[in-house]
């Protein structure tokens, strides 16, 4: 896990990489590389190297990323990105019998949106989303809403659905739970979602002057799906 021995997470990782047929392509925004408490390295440590490939960047075109372009054109490739055009992953998994490839964008919501809409390759795969059935356990980082998940959590839920194996989710979430426990024991605070803070009058930062951002915060308070 590359962490100091005092807070080593290796005992919480699977002894052997999980055997999965689904291959993940993690499209990581460059800003995520410098974050101390990242979840993608933990995800990669749970899976075989050939089942979790990480590409770092903002712009991805066919000339520079021919392998990714081929993957995006494959009819079995899915991209996990919520929206009006996205199908619930459970429905897709029921119909799918062949090994799939899934693309997940790693970054803040604004970074992920920028990557998704400014790279035409990512509009080629079938767009899927997860049902908001669980709350994030990544409590040491603030999420926009109560149902927003970290990249590792998204991957854990998605893989358990695609592989039809609930234990995969539990195995991948285990090191994340340990990470949060260690951090809380060493002075970190539990971070409630922005939605929770706004609804309970606990948001202590200045309200944004940008009308679009202010409107988004009003929607959160009024429980409107964004």
TrEMBL record:
Q: Which UniProt keywords apply?
A: S-adenosyl-L-methionine, Transferase, tRNA processing
Any one Pfam family here would be DTW
Which molecular function term from Gene Ontology is one that the record holds? Answer: tRNA-uridine aminocarboxypropyltransferase activity
Q: Which residues form the DTW domain?
A: 1-188
InterPro entries per the UniProt record, alphabetical: DTW, DTWD2/TAPT
Q: Name one GO biological process term.
A: tRNA processing
Coiled coil residues, start to end: none
- Catalysed reactions, as listed in the record: a uridine in tRNA + S-adenosyl-L-methionine = a 3-[(3S)-3-amino-3-carboxypropyl]uridine in tRNA + S-methyl-5'-thioadenosine + H(+)
Under Enzyme Commission nomenclature, its number is 2.5.1.25
> According to the UniProt record, what class of enzyme is this?
transferase
Which family is annotated? Answer: Belongs to the TDD superfamily. DTWD2 family.
Please report the name of this protein according to its UniProt entry: tRNA-uridine aminocarboxypropyltransferase
- Annotated organism of origin: Certhia brachydactyla
Query: Lineage, please?
Result: Eukaryota, Metazoa, Chordata, Craniata, Vertebrata
Q: Which gene encodes it?
A: Dtwd2
């Amino acid at each position: 896990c590359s962490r100091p021995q005092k807070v080593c997470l290796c005992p919480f990782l699977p002894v052997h990489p999980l055997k999965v047929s689904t291959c993940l392509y993690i499209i990581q925004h460059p800003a995520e590389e410098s974050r101390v408490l990242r979840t993608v390295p933990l995800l990669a440590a749970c899976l075989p190297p050939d089942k979790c490939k990480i590409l770092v960047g903002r712009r991805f075109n066919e000339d520079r990323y021919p392998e990714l372009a081929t993957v995006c054109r494959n009819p079995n490739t899915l991209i996990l990105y919520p929206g009006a055009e996205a199908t619930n992953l459970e429905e897709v998994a029921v119909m799918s019998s062949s090994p799939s490839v899934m693309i997940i964008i790693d970054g803040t919501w604004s970074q992920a949106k920028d990557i998704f809409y400014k790279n035409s390759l990512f509009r080629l795969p079938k767009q899927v989303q997860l049902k908001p059935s669980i709350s994030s356990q990544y409590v040491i980082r603030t999420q926009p809403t109560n149902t927003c998940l970290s990249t590792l959590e998204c991957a854990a839920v998605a893989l358990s659905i695609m592989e039809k194996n609930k234990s995969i989710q539990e195995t991948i979430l285990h090191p994340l739970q340990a990470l949060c426990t260690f951090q809380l024991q060493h002075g970190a605070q539990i971070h409630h979602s922005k939605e929770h803070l706004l609804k309970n009058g606990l948001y202590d930062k200045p309200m944004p002057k940008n009308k679009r951002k202010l409107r988004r915060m009003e929607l959160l308070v009024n429980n409107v799906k964004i």
